[in-house]
């Protein structure tokens, strides 16, 4: 028992890409730049959604929640990764690993549900424009947001508890750059078939079901867009929907490849690359594709800059 508890007392070693120090040096700069841009883009969206009354709509309520979630996800994993890439210890405490696992799992579940809610919001806006404000009334929007957060973190409580109570028998080296369920299962010195089956079932619920709902929603949107008489309107709508679908495919594609296969079949180098893409690139793409190209956001940003400039001149 003393040996089994050794990992929980001393923490874990995150190997990352330690076998390729030159790669870690390059990745450090790339990750740092992407992290800064992600913080800037997502913080801008949240700030504009709060201060500009014209953005107090259901769509920007969901988008600001998505941006806040992306900020939390990158901050949960990236700083520790940067420290480990530049340091020699590459360690994380047991409590830090539990927190990282819990937060990352919870936020991943929240984003899955939230993206399906956003697809329904776009369906209501395009296919039922005259009834949009009746369908997407403020109370319903708030309930949907709360449901997304509660569903994601309720699952995270169960997953984290089941994973971190496994006997590790003194193993404390994680062949990854952050704490993740499939990697933790590899450290267990007991049969993990029940954990793997439960992880697969939960992954189907959080990945396949929301993705199916999103594709159905966008199928209805595409059908409605094809009925538009204006060719310019069709191009604009398809451009917007295509961008959104690109984010959905990237997000769900990476998670499906990570979780809808048994941990025993994982190629760790591929898995680490996918996880890095999911935790870094997707939070960077979301603000670029969903909002910063929108006329409403550009207008809000312009009004904010012009207003600040006028105030400085008057003072």
Descriptive labels:
315 residues, mainly alpha, 11 helices, 3 strands, 77% helix
Structure characterization notes:
This protein is mainly α. Helices cover 77% and strands 2% of the residues. The chain has a three-stranded mixed beta sheet with strand order 2-1-3. The radius of gyration is 22 Å and the shape is globular. The model is unreliable at 1-8 (pLDDT under 50).
Give the % helix.
over 70%
Helix count equals: 11
User: Could you tell me how far the N terminus lies from the C terminus, measured between alpha carbons in angstroms?
Assistant: 70 Å
Strand content: under 5%
> What is the alpha-carbon Rg in Å?
22 Å
- Number-wise, the strands total 3
Mean residue pLDDT: 83
**Series of H and E elements:** HEHHEHHHEHHHHH
Main sheet properties = 3 strands, mixed
Q: Low-confidence stretches at least 5 residues in length (pLDDT < 50)?
A: 1-8
Structural class, from secondary structure content? mainly alpha
Order of strands, main sheet, comes to 2-1-3
Global geometry: globular
């Amino acid at each position: 028992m003393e040996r089994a508890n050794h990992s929980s007392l001393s923490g874990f070693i995150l190997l990352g890409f330690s076998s390729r120090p030159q790669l870690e040096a390059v990745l450090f700069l790339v990750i740092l730049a992407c992290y800064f841009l992600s913080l800037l883009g997502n913080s801008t969206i949240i700030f504009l959604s709060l201060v500009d009354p014209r953005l107090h709509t259901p769509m920007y309520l969901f988008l600001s929640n998505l941006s806040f979630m992306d900020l939390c996800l990158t901050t949960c994993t990236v700083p520790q990764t940067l420290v480990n890439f530049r340091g020699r210890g590459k360690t994380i405490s047991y409590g830090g690993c539990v927190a990282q696992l819990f937060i990352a799992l919870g936020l991943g579940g929240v984003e899955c549900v939230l993206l399906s809610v956003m697809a329904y919001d776009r369906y209501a806006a395009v296919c039922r424009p005259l009834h949009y404000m009746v369908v997407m009334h403020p109370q319903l929007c708030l309930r949907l947001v709360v449901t997304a957060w509660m569903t994601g973190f309720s699952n995270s409580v169960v997953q984290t508890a089941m994973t971190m109570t496994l006997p590790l028998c003194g193993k404390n080296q994680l062949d990854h750059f952050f704490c993740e369920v499939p990697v933790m299962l590899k450290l267990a010195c007991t049969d993990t078939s029940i954990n793997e089956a439960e992880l697969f079932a939960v992954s189907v619920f959080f990945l396949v079901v929301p993705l199916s709902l999103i594709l159905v929603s966008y199928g209805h949107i595409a059908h409605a867009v094809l009925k538009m008489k204006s060719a310019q309107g069709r191009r604009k709508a398809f451009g917007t929907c295509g961008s959104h679908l690109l984010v959905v495919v990237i997000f769900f594609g990476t998670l499906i490849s990570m979780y809808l296969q048994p941990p025993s079949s994982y190629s760790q180098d591929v898995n680490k690359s996918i996880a890095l893409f999911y935790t870094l690139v997707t939070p960077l793409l979301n603000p670029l594709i969903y909002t910063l190209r929108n006329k409403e956001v550009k207008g809000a940003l312009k009004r904010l800059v012009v207003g600040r400039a006028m105030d400085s001149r008057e003072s």
